[in-house]
Amino acid sequence: MDKTYQEISNQSKSWQQTLDIVAQSWSDTGLTFDSPGTHALFIGCGTSLYLAQSAARLFQEVTGIISVASPASEVMLTSEAVVPANMPVIAFAISRSGTTSEILMAVDYLHRTYSNVKTVGVTCHSEKTLAKLAHAAICLDHAREESVVMTQSFTNMLLALQWIAAHTAKRTDLMTELAQLPQALETGMDSMMEFATTIGRDAGLNQFIYLGLGSYNGLAEEGTLKLKEMTQTPCEAYNPLEFRHGPISIVEQGTATVFLVSQVHASYIRGVIDDVKKLNARVFVLTPAAFVDDFAGHAVLPLADGFSDWARAVLYMPVLQFLAHARAVELGLNPDRPRNLSQVVILSKSE
Ligand code: F1P
Predict the structure, then answer these.
(1) Which residues approach ligand 1 with their CB closer than 6 A?
(2) Are the beta carbons of 324 and 227 closer than 8 angstroms?
(3) Is a pLDDT exceeding 80 seen at residue 349?
(4) CA 188 / ligand 1 centre spacing (Å)
């Protein structure tokens, strides 16, 4: 069995490990959002940027703290447009490897340029540069991968940031929900794998559109990145309501549309589903089990009930990861060796 598959399948275990250590890790940073006006900044590259985008939405949603996501490169190249200048900022610098050039350059730039910014490395490699360079670090070494593509590291780092958000907001109800996610994943894993494998093996599908709104948009983007990395399949991610505003032109026979449905937006998303169906798109819906009947006639994967949209976010990801993996295997590709990629992008001195 390839490493990628093992790492996707390991997530209920690694989520539990993250939940076991995150309270202590956050407390050890000594940081809080208690000072009035403190802003949150989330930065990363590639998968870690999509993570930053979801995390910023999730963070602001429950804390009310202004939260911005940015590619790490823009922190140093267009810093005035990204970094709040006159208020305290906690900047979460996300990088599985802790060695990506742009993230290290961004943290170094923040330290040299902004005395109002405290940096927190979020990483799966405590021994690498980021954890030492940043003012503080959240290290999830148990969630690192041997394979190139990021799967469990994405969900674990997101889960840790969600826990910090819920803790900051003093939302014990959400912390309780997060604590139930490993079991929900364990219970749902087989059906997720089966659903994803059926789609991934379908030779009639030639392009994929992932649709997610708000914090789910970063998840949709990350889903497409898995497909690109492992299979080089044409794919794009959109906010479902944005999809009608032009991009819907690309729908044709053989287009798979995969909807990450949140409970509160379900009625809006149903309208988009009707529209793409009329254009002969294939429709796949991931939704809490209680809403399955609302999507009768489509291929639906019921996700665990009993979670708010906010807490359920990471539960969508293993499905999209399994889908990319299944398609890679179907196409005869090795998921552990994606084309043109290595685990880390390190820029040469002149770049
Ligand atoms: C970020 C990243 C990965 C991508 C590739 C290169 O890594 O862009 O998302 O899959 O392997 O690196 P990191 O900064 O999170 O280690």
Answers:
(1) 45-48, 95-97, 100, 103, 148-150, 229, 341, 343-345
(2) yes
(3) no
(4) 28
- What average pLDDT score do residues 159-172 get? 98
pTM (predicted TM-score): 0.97
**Phi, psi dihedral angles at 39 (to 5 degrees):** -105, 160
Distance from the alpha carbon of residue 318 to the mean position of ligand 1, in angstroms: 18
For 82-93, give one letter per residue: b (16+ CB within 10 A) or e. bbbeeebbbbbb
DSSP E strands in the chain: the ranges are 39-44, 67-71, 89-95, 117-123, 136-139, 207-211, 235-238, 255-260, 282-288, 299-303
Contact 178, 62 (CB under 8 A): no
Structure tokens belonging to residue 68: 């911005």
Long-range contacts of 173-177 (CB under 8 A, 24+ apart): 174/62, 174/308, 174/310, 174/311, 177/306, 177/307, 177/308, 177/311
b/e burial code for range 266-292 (CB count within 10 A of at least 16 → b)? beebbebbebbeeeebbbbbbbbeebe
Expressed in angstroms and rounded, the spacing between residue 345 Cα and the centre of ligand 1 is 7
Q: Which of 43, 47, 99, 125 most suits a substitution to test ligand 1, by most atoms within 8 Å of the C-beta?
A: 47
Amino acid found at 26 = W
Total length of the chain: 351
Ligand 1 centre distance from Cα of residue 92 (Å): 16
Q: Would you state the pLDDT for residue 301? A: 98
And the tokens for 29? Answer: 């940073």
**Quick one: pLDDT at residue 136?**
98
